[in-house]
Amino acid sequence: MTEQGAVAAAIWRDTDFAREWAEGDSYRDLLSFPRHLAAVLIAADNPEPGTVVDIGSGPGDFLAVLLEQFPQARGVWTDVSEAMFDMARERLARFGDRVDYHLADMTDLAGGGVPDGVDVITTSRAVHHLDRDGLFGFYGQAAARLAPGGWLVNLDHIGPAGPGDTWDKRLRAARQQFGVAQGGAKHHHNYPLTSVDDHLQALAGAGFTDVDTPWRAFFTTLFMARKTGQ
Fold this sequence. Notes:
Blueprint: H1 3-9, H2 15-23, H3 32-45, E1 51-55, H4 61-69, E2 74-79, H5 82-91, E3 99-103, E4 118-124, H6 132-145, E5 146-157, H7 166-176, H8 196-205, E6 210-217, E7 220-226
Parallel strand pairs: 1-2, 1-4, 2-3, 4-5
Antiparallel strand pairs: 5-7, 6-7
Helix pairs in contact: 2-5, 3-4, 6-8
C-alpha cells in the first residue's frame, strides 16, 4: 500500500464510521442518474461486457447498477474497508456468485486482485482522496487492466478551477437547496481536490483519446473514457 493509500484508507477501517457514512449518504439519490447514464452509454458500445470491476466500491451501489444492466456480466467488488465489505455482501446478495470480493487498495490495483483484460472499470467518490500524482497513477494502472475497447468510468468529486473561484461559492450555496449535505461523516480529503482539467490530463496521460464528461452536478463529475481498440 502506498503512503497516499494508507492515509486515505485509515478512517474507512473504522466500522462505526463506515456505517455512519453509508447510512447518511446524502448523495445516494443524486448519483443514481449518472450511474445509470454510464451503464446505458457503455451498453450502446458493448451490450455484453464480460467483467465489471468496481474500485473503492463501498456498499456496492455503482456495481449493482452495472450488474443489473448487464445480466451476463461478472462483477469484481474491491474496497479497503471490511465494514463496507459486510454491507456490500448484503446489498449485492441478489447477484449470488456473479460477484467476487477483494479487500484492496486503490493505489495498488495489481496487488489487489484486479484482473487483466476487463471490459469495464468503475469507481465512485474514491479517487478524490488522491493528489494529482496519485490520480495520474490510478488512471495509468486502470488503463493497463482494461481490454482494448474497455471502459473506465469515474464518478468523482472535483475541486474548483482556481483559488477563490466564484463558482465554488455559488455551487456550495446552491447545493444546500437540493438537500445535498456539505460534509456528512468527516473523513480525509486531499485538498485542494483535483480539478476537471487534472482528470482530463491524467486520462490523456494514461493513453485515453476517447473521453467525455457527460454529467456534472455541483462538485461531482462523471468521467468516461474508452480504451483504444476494437
